[in-house]
Design brief:
Layout (H helix, E strand, L loop, with lengths): L22 H7 L7 H4 L5 H25 L6
Length: 76
């Protein structure tokens, strides 16, 4: 990359910077999940991940609805 195209200055002064100043705000407005590498290779896009999680969520909900119906009253 040419020096003309480089947007970074040679030196920045962070001496008055505050570490983590916006970290809490960032956590409030984002919902980022890091997939393990072995899981990430199974999906080509975030859309595929969301579809898989929705399907799994439905299965889990159906299973929990079914198991609560078969449990005796004293077990619930």
């Amino acid at each position: 990359m040419d020096d003309e195209d480089d947007e970074m200055l040679a030196e920045y002064d962070f001496s008055r910077g505050v570490r983590g100043k916006y970290a809490a705000r960032c956590q409030e407005v984002t919902n980022i999940v890091k997939l393990d590498d072995d899981v990430a290779v199974m999906f080509k896009s975030s859309r595929e991940v969301n579809e898989a999680l929705r399907a799994l969520g439905k299965i889990i909900q159906q299973h929990s609805d079914t198991s609560s119906e078969t449990q005796p009253d004293h077990c619930q």
